[in-house]
TrEMBL record:
<keyword id="KW-0597">Phosphoprotein</keyword>
<dbReference type="InterPro" id="IPR058245">
    <property type="entry name" value="NreC/VraR/RcsB-like_REC"/>
</dbReference>
<dbReference type="InterPro" id="IPR011006">
    <property type="entry name" value="CheY-like_superfamily"/>
</dbReference>
<feature type="domain" description="Response regulatory">
    <location>
        <begin position="2"/>
        <end position="123"/>
    </location>
</feature>
<dbReference type="InterPro" id="IPR000792">
    <property type="entry name" value="Tscrpt_reg_LuxR_C"/>
</dbReference>
<dbReference type="InterPro" id="IPR001789">
    <property type="entry name" value="Sig_transdc_resp-reg_receiver"/>
</dbReference>
<keyword id="KW-0238">DNA-binding</keyword>
<feature type="domain" description="HTH luxR-type">
    <location>
        <begin position="144"/>
        <end position="209"/>
    </location>
</feature>
<feature type="modified residue" description="4-aspartylphosphate">
    <location>
        <position position="58"/>
    </location>
</feature>
<dbReference type="Pfam" id="PF00196">
    <property type="entry name" value="GerE"/>
</dbReference>
<dbReference type="GO" id="GO:0003677">
    <property type="term" value="F:DNA binding"/>
</dbReference>
<dbReference type="GO" id="GO:0006355">
    <property type="term" value="P:regulation of DNA-templated transcription"/>
</dbReference>
<protein>
    <submittedName>
        <fullName>Response regulator transcription factor</fullName>
    </submittedName>
</protein>
<dbReference type="InterPro" id="IPR016032">
    <property type="entry name" value="Sig_transdc_resp-reg_C-effctor"/>
</dbReference>
<dbReference type="GO" id="GO:0000160">
    <property type="term" value="P:phosphorelay signal transduction system"/>
</dbReference>
<dbReference type="Pfam" id="PF00072">
    <property type="entry name" value="Response_reg"/>
</dbReference>
<dbReference type="InterPro" id="IPR039420">
    <property type="entry name" value="WalR-like"/>
</dbReference>
Amino acid sequence: MRVLIVDDHAVVRRGIRAYLEVLDDMEVAAEAADGQEALTRLDEMAAHRELPDVVLIDLLMPKMDGATAIGAIKKRHPDVRVVVLTSFGEMERVHAALAQGAAGYLLKDAEAGEVVAAIRAAARGEVFLDPAVARGLTQEMVSPPTGLSALTGRERDVLVLVAEGRSNQQIADELVISERTARTHVSNVLRKLRLTSRTQAALFAVRRGLVPPRA
């Protein structure tokens, strides 16, 4: 099967390539250093009817983050499967990746065999999750958190910025994320806190002592 490796660290790409290319059923079709370059590569391969079976992608990258790239990949090339390989296991990132269409989620401390297993599973149309990620998702279903404890660290940051009156674009600039990702974070904060407006979110933050009252 053909694989596109997407990671902003060249040494990571080379290491993955070296391992995959010794396997009889694996071929590295190309590499990309960020989400935007990955889309360009895929469009070029699609023009020659040489799309890869699986894209192995990091999440935190310049120009276009992994979650945004996954959504774009699935929209342009729905038959291509995407597996995340990242250092970040926060449930917020897991949910974002899976919501965009990822078929697997692995942490970078995974064994090489697990990476291969995830790629093969994705190519078969299955979902492969890192054991730690699977445990986190299971815990959420068994005992879902409520109130402020339901928010991830990043969502708390977003809540504070909302309470300070920042727009989605300003939040994106402050946290170095896309405006779309910032908008998603704000929606998640409101949903988890069962609020209906940014004003209510600001009042919630003030009452919890996260920000001082505005004059």
